[in-house]
Amino acid sequence: MRQVVVVTGIPGSGKTTVCNLAKEIAEKDKGKSLSVINFGTVMVELLEKKGKHVHRDSMRKSDLQMQIQLQKEAAETISRRIAEAGNDVIVDTHMCVKTGRGFLPGLPRHVLDAFKPDLFVLVEAPAEEILSRRVKDKSRLRDIVLKKDVEEELLFSRLMACACAVQTGAPVKIVINEQGKQKEAALKLLEVMEL
Ligand code: AMP
Ligand code: MG
């Protein structure tokens, strides 16, 4: 049975690195095909089709109704790609998005209905490490916040994960991505996927 796994992590958790590494290991070392679909990238592509060029880290600061509409369109696009893929799929996204008007659920009911996930994986790291990754990452417009803000984001993500588990009946696994141990985290992710 092919599976749809939703992998989430707050900015700076390293979820994209872990997802891409898991794909590489699955394909090169295990001979299994695995697709990784990045929700944020699909949103940026949809905006570009509309002639709007918005930085991926600025989207969550834009108009909330616009984000909600884009989230809906992205979920529809991704659900089509999941159907086309035919193999195991990881959707790289967020449990919640920190907008100017509060935490927006990354996986509201209609998104869950579109994806039908079998498993949720939360990629986490110690708050201090997340903070220092945000400071060092020059390729992104990461928010520089306090440790307590990172802890709040981690907590909200876990709370949202509980809600997603109850809505879908799918379990939640936490994978710790410690500094310099991305490979271990990727292997852990593959292990929970039974790949
Ligand atoms: P990322 O590269 O994963 O940090 O995602 C970039 C941006 O895409 C996020 O900061 C959000 O603005 C947006 N995004 C990603 N996933 C979702 C989602 N499920 N719902 C709404 N916005 C999302
Ligand atoms: Mg990412």
Task: Give a nutshell description of this structure.
By secondary structure, the protein is of the alpha/beta class.
Account of the 3D structure:
- It is a single chain.
- The chain has one domain (about 5-190): Rossmann fold (3-Layer(aba) Sandwich), CATH 3.40.50.
- Strand 4 (about 95-100) and strand 5 form a beta hairpin.
- It has helices at about 15-30, 40-50, 65-85, 110-115, 125-135, 145-170, 180-190, and strands spanning about 5-10, 35-40, 90-95, 95-100, 100-105, 120-125, 170-175.
- Helix 1 crosses helix 7 (about 180-190), helix 2 (about 40-50) crosses helix 3 and helix 3 runs parallel beside helix 4.
- The protein is globular, with a radius of gyration of 16 Å.
- The strands form two sheets. Strands 2-3-1-6-7 form a five-stranded parallel beta sheet, sandwiched between helices. A two-stranded antiparallel sheet has the order 4-5.
- It is α/β, with parallel strands linked by helices.
- The structure holds adenosine monophosphate and magnesium ion (MG).
- Magnesium ion binds near residues 15 and 16.
- Magnesium ion (MG) binds next to helix 1.
How are the SSEs ordered, and which strands pair?
Layout: E1 4-8, H1 15-28, E2 34-38, H2 39-49, H3 64-85, E3 88-93, E4 96-99, E5 102-105, H4 109-115, E6 119-124, H5 127-136, H6 147-168, E7 172-176, H7 182-192
Parallel strand pairs: 1-3, 1-6, 2-3, 6-7
Antiparallel strand pairs: 4-5
Helix pairs in contact: 1-7, 2-3, 3-4, 5-6
The chain binds adenosine monophosphate (AMP) and magnesium ion (MG).
